[in-house]
Write a structure and sequence with these properties.
Structural class of chain A: mainly alpha
Oligomer: heterodimer
Largest interface: A-B, 46 and 41 residues
Helix content of chain A: 40-55%
Strand order of the largest sheet of chain A: 1-4
């Protein structure tokens, strides 16, 4: 009963659901392919959804005073909204669809009939947006990290997909192991020794035989996924739990009100709502036919009407068309009107000046509080805030970075990770390199190519190889040739620079028995090191590497350079 | 044992060729006369000097073919229906011209010879130091191996298994199981300088079948002997088409590359490594892990005492 009331059926509604699912699949399809084939092709398709997002366009324009060309595609969404209203929310937004599906799931659990009409609190999203935009105008790009497309992309990349990857990788490994006959491993071509000969003959156990048909399917499937989808093995991210928790809370809010996020919080929804102030597609109610049964109200995705059958507010309407589909008396329909026509009349957004003022003050205050710390004022630099090569100087970087996670997704070593506290609250979830997890690949410039807002500049590989993102330091209390008088120099070996930023010096040390031994001690050439972190990544110490890269000497900050600045010609920003 | 001069080589090659033709005398005949299978071949380019990069590709193919032919052909090692793992060095995100990875034409030719000898499947793979996909592609080996119908294998980090190798220094180490469960592994290193070991050759190429190899650096001499003894090499092919004489193993500077146009093949891994040391212009005393392996009974450093064939290719 409640089911059918909330989800009416007719052809138009089914079409809308089909479109929603298609966009959802497209979103996740692009996300999955960004880990494989799209990354290899350096394809711009990876950032498709972001390019049609007018909130990113507006906030980048306000905060950075710049417009990345491709983002102008978002004007299409603006036109669409001015004409049709918030159909982006109702038909296309993948996060909206996820909230929609969550709501439908909750409908099965919460059986009571809900009476959800327009709440004045739905204006909160506009006030939040205004506060955020004031913040953006002052250079704070924080609104973008709450953009729904960004939020979903980040959550999926950082938390959800790695969980899928882990499950698949470990299941495949378990099945493979279960199917394999256990015997001591030795080369098959080798001469068998006496013990080995006996062991080679050990036969398949019941477990082996049961697992074999499963493995016959999972092995090739996993092989394909490994080579084409999960190219970065064991890809996973620091702080994924927090990001997942935020997402879980937003989903749970559907239990309070359906599409809580879309109705009360979403900044993109608010922006589109403002654009849909007086759309050309409007709902008209034939008042004589309406018996105020409120079937339309119960089915409404956006809680767009103040009362049964009337008081329609286009800024809240997601264009889901459930109302016309649910009406048994055909009392309402959507019609196109000219901009100068006054009927059918609609409820306007109706924001209060005083609250708007409060929002603006709140936005300014929040930004001031976030920036009033030593790091944001560049009195100090966080040693572990190693930004990807091509990242703008920190203030400009934060004006543009949305923390969407696309660079982290495509980083071929998996070294780009979301910042937790390293970049302050303002820079939460923005990318930083954690060399111990993955280094910056010398021949790769992908992060700058995929960045939708130019926070990481698209550099050529040759330019990128000139950019210093940090500097390597030896911990001589750990480094094996220094601390233990033995050879090692793995760091020298893996340094990718043709001219090597690490060199070695032969020194004589005396061991505890008084013997003199010669060892090769590695040293850093500050003029050459670009801070890629290959050395830190491959150091024999896995808890705390004996060579570590810090942000010192990064090209983008003169103030963070301890050495005399290199000649101007080598400055890629110069 | 310095690198021999071109003249010496030509004279020797001519003698060898003559000996082969006549079926008597010379170095090659030593193998034949004693009716002992050939243990090592050295194929060296004797044609027009200073070939272009495109010509080097064709030369690499010929050298590999001749080196294997000299050993008695691939059929000596590969039986009908065998599964073979060709193990080149694909450690770095470097191009073939930079000589940090095995030459792709050498690899492709070996694959073809395996198939011609009746192999059912040929797999190609290594455990690179740089990111695998980048290294496989930059080295040209991924494309060359695919074109030769081999399976290009990217190793799965979940699958390394701790193996009891009963070494002197290394008791156990994680090894990639699929690399052991084939009928033959052909070890195809490139001859390169190495900062710590001075040279990285066939024995050191086994670093690509294991994980946690970083600790080997603290005692190459014992560790490399241990892993080599465990792997029981049957056939090794040393790529010295281009060699890296300095800045190894990673390389990157073209000034450090020498074009040697040589491919050697053999059953004695220590002998091949000894030859490799010469080819990169070093002495055996500079590369202690090679004589150490001889002491450990893994082969002979004096490769000239083996049943050796030197082949001039043009």
């Amino acid at each position: 009963m409640t089911q059918s009331r909330r989800s009416p059926r007719n052809r138009t509604v089914q079409l809308r659901r089909g479109v929603q699912i298609a966009f959802l699949l497209l979103f996740f399809g692009l996300l999955v392919l960004a880990g494989g084939v799209l990354r290899e092709g350096h394809s711009s398709w990876m950032k498709l959804f972001f390019l049609f997002d007018p909130l990113l366009l507006l906030s980048t324009l306000l905060a950075a005073g710049a417009v990345p060309k491709l983002l102008l595609l978002a004007l299409a969404t603006v036109v669409l909204t001015v004409v049709l209203g918030r159909v982006f929310c109702g038909w296309a937004c993948p996060l909206g669809t996820i909230h929609d599906l969550t709501g439908r799931l909750l409908d099965r659990l919460q059986r009571r009939l809900r009476q959800e009409h327009l709440s004045p609190w739905q204006k909160s999203k506009y006030y939040l947006l205004v506060g955020f935009l004031v913040m953006a105008a002052l250079g704070g790009h924080w609104v973008a990290i709450w953009d729904p497309l960004v939020l979903l992309y980040r959550t999926s990349t950082v938390a959800l997909w790695p969980a899928v990857q882990l499950s698949i990788e470990q299941t495949a490994a378990a099945v493979r192991d279960a199917a394999a006959v256990e015997r001591p491993l030795r080369p098959k071509w080798a001469q068998p020794d006496e013990a080995g000969q006996a062991q080679q003959q050990s036969s398949a156990t019941l477990k082996n035989r049961l697992a074999r048909p499963v493995a016959a399917v999972t092995n090739p499937v996993h092989g394909f996924l490994k080579d084409h989808v999960f190219v970065v093995q064991r890809q996973s991210f620091l702080g994924a739990g927090t990001i997942a928790a935020v997402f879980a809370v937003l989903l749970a809010l559907n239990a309070v009100r359906r599409r809580f996020w879309c109705r009360y919080l979403c900044p993109l929804g608010a922006l589109l709502g403002l654009l849909a102030w007086r759309p050309l597609l409007r709902r008209a109610t034939h008042e004589q036919s309406c018996n105020q049964c409120d079937l339309c109200g119960q089915a409404c995705h956006g809680a767009a009407s103040a009362a049964a059958g009337s008081g329609w507010k286009p800024s809240e309407c997601l264009g889901c068309l459930n109302c016309t589909a649910s009406c048994n008396r055909q009392a309402m329909r959507f019609t196109f009107i000219w901009p100068w026509q006054r009927r059918p009349q609609v409820e306007t957004v109706d924001l209060r000046r005083r609250v708007l003022l409060g929002s603006a003050v709140g936005g300014i205050a929040a930004l001031a509080v976030m920036r009033a710390n030593p790091q944001a004022r560049q009195a100090v630099f966080h040693p572990q805030l190693i930004r990807p090569p091509g990242a703008l100087p920190e203030p400009e970087f934060l004006q543009r970075c949305t923390a969407c996670g696309l660079c982290m997704k495509v980083c071929p070593t998996g070294g780009l990770q979301p910042a937790i506290s390293e970049a302050g609250l303002e820079g939460i979830w923005t990318p930083r390199l954690v060399p111990q997890i993955g280094y910056c690949q010398y021949s790769c410039n992908l992060c700058g190519q995929v960045c939708p807002t130019g926070a990481i500049q698209p550099l050529s590989v040759e330019q990128k190889q000139q950019v210093r993102i940090g500097l390597a330091f030896f911990d001589t209390t750990r480094c094996i040739p220094y601390a233990y008088g033995r050879d090692c120099t793995v760091c020298w070996e893996v340094c990718p620079l043709p001219e090597k930023a690490i060199y070695t010096e032969k020194v004589t040390v005396v061991d505890r028995n008084g013997n003199t031994i010669e060892v090769m001690q590695p040293r850093i050439d500050i003029e050459k090191c670009i801070g890629c972190g290959n050395c830190e990544h491959d150091c024999v110490f896995r808890d705390l590497p004996a060579i570590r890269v810090h942000s010192a000497n990064e090209t983008r900050h003169r103030k963070n350079q301890p050495e005399l600045a290199p000649p101007a010609s080598s400055d890629p920003y110069g | 044992m310095h690198c021999q001069s071109r003249r010496e080589f030509m004279v020797r090659s001519a003698t060898t060729a003559g000996a082969l033709a006549l079926g008597a005398g010379g170095i090659a005949s030593r193998a034949l006369a004693q009716d002992k299978p050939v243990e090592m071949t050295i194929a060296k380019w004797n044609g027009a000097p200073k070939p272009t990069n495109d010509e080097i590709k064709q030369i690499a193919v010929k050298l590999t073919e001749k080196a294997i032919e000299g050993l008695g052909g691939m059929k000596r090692f590969v039986k009908q229906g065998d599964v073979v793992w060709v193990k080149p060095n694909i450690a770095w995100d470097r191009s073939p011209e930079q000589a940090a990875n095995t030459n792709p034409e050498v690899v492709a030719t070996l694959i073809r010879l395996c198939f011609e000898a009746g192999a059912k499947r040929v797999k190609v793979g290594d455990n690179p130091v740089h990111q695998a996909k980048k290294s496989y592609e930059a080295s040209g080996i991924a494309a060359a191996a695919k074109a030769a119908d081999a399976e290009v294998v990217y190793l799965d980090k979940e699958r390394f298994k701790e193996v009891d190798i009963k070494g002197q220094r290394v008791k156990s180490i994680p090894i990639y199981p699929d690399m052991l469960e084939v009928d033959l592994m052909i070890n195809v290193p490139i001859a390169k300088h190495h900062v710590l070991a001075t040279a990285t050759l066939a024995m050191k190429n086994y670093m690509g079948v294991i994980e946690n190899r970083r600790v080997f650096h603290q005692d190459f001499n014992s560790c490399l002997s241990d892993i080599t003894r465990f792997m029981q090499p049957k056939l090794c092919v040393l790529d010295a088409v281009r060699v890296l004489v300095a800045g190894g193993p990673t390389g990157g500077r073209l000034e450090d590359v020498r074009t040697k146009l040589t491919v050697a093949a053999g059953t004695d891994i220590v002998a091949l490594d000894a030859l490799g040391v010469e080819l990169i212009g070093r002495k055996l005393t500079d590369v202690p892990h090679v004589p150490a392996a001889e002491k450990n009974g893994l082969g002979k450093t004096d490769y000239r005492s083996l049943a050796l064939r030197e082949i001039a290719v043009s």
